[in-house]
Write a structure and sequence with these properties.
The chain is an alpha/beta fold and about 260 residues long. About 45% of the residues lie in helices and about 10% in strands. The protein starts with a helix and ends in a 16-residue tail after the last helix. Bound molecules: magnesium ion.
């Protein structure tokens, strides 16, 4: 029995966390505010027809993973940093409060923990700071990680790599240098979860109580993680070895 528990607990070596609407609830309103800012950007900077903007924003998001990726695929020309500064720069970050419960949960888990977000680094760092979670993750895989300047500036390929493409998830697995069979992926997006499963990850849909296709677990809130996955803590009890935690959040770059 002891051996079985040991195998169970050591099953997971790494936890990949989406950030927005996964580490904090949708009810903060950041998501809505972000969408409004994207639509304003499409109007003001890309001079699109006002009546078409809301539908196009949503259609591109559905088709390409992010509206930004869709705009690039349609050959709209704009600076990625300008776009991110515009849509995230005016977000109501004061709605995000330090989450000590989540912080303690994360710090008590022995596995490696990495953020995997489609957002840019500035936004990711700001959100983690506001939530008081900066020390909980060894690194951040974000827009800049998956889309380094060299690739973005290549005119023949302005394609943006982002979730839910399986290719983006496989890139994150490679950059984090993890075994997908020993990694759990947490995300609030059903399509990201479906792709995560295709990439071979264990998956947890966050923010709803019902399983979605490709999800192994469903958590209404990330705060329920210990009730749903107690084996994550058993690993520490069984193995007895300490995992060294990096004190600072760093952006992981592709080697
Ligand atoms: Mg999300």
């Amino acid at each position: 029995m002891d051996t079985a528990r040991r195998n169970d607990g050591a099953m997971y070596e790494c936890l990949l966390f989406d950030m927005d609407d996964t580490l904090y609830p949708l009810s903060t309103g950041l998501n809505l505010a972000c969408r409004k800012n994207i639509q304003d950007y499409m109007l003001e900077h890309l001079h699109m027809e006002e009546s078409q903007v809301p539908k196009m924003c949503l259609d591109l998001y559905k088709e390409y993973g992010t509206t930004m990726a869709g705009l690039k695929a349609l050959d709209y020309e704009f600076d990625n940093d300008d776009f991110h500064a515009y849509v995230h720069g005016r977000l109501p970050y004061d709605k995000l409060k330090p989450d000590l419960v989540l912080r303690n949960l994360l710090l008590s888990m022995p596995q490696r923990k990495i953020i995997f977000t489609n957002a840019d680094q500035t936004h990711a760092v700001e959100v983690l700071k506001r939530l008081g979670l900066e020390e909980c993750f060894e690194g951040i895989i974000c827009f800049e990680t998956l889309n380094p300047p060299k690739q973005v500036n290549n005119e023949s390929d302005s394609r943006i790599l982002c979730k839910p493409s399986v290719e983006a998830i496989e890139a994150a697995i490679r950059i984090a240098d993890v075994d997908p069979k020993k990694t759990i992926f947490f995300d609030d997006s059903a399509r990201n979860i479906a792709s995560g499963k295709v990439a071979g990850l264990h998956t947890v849909i966050v923010g709803c109580s019902d399983l979605v296709p490709g999800a192994d677990y469903a958590l209404r809130s990330i705060h329920n993680i210990k009730e749903a996955l107690p084996e994550l803590w058993e690993a520490e009890e069984c193995d007895g070895h300490q995992v060294i935690k990096s004190p600072a959040v760093e952006t992981m770059v592709q080697a």
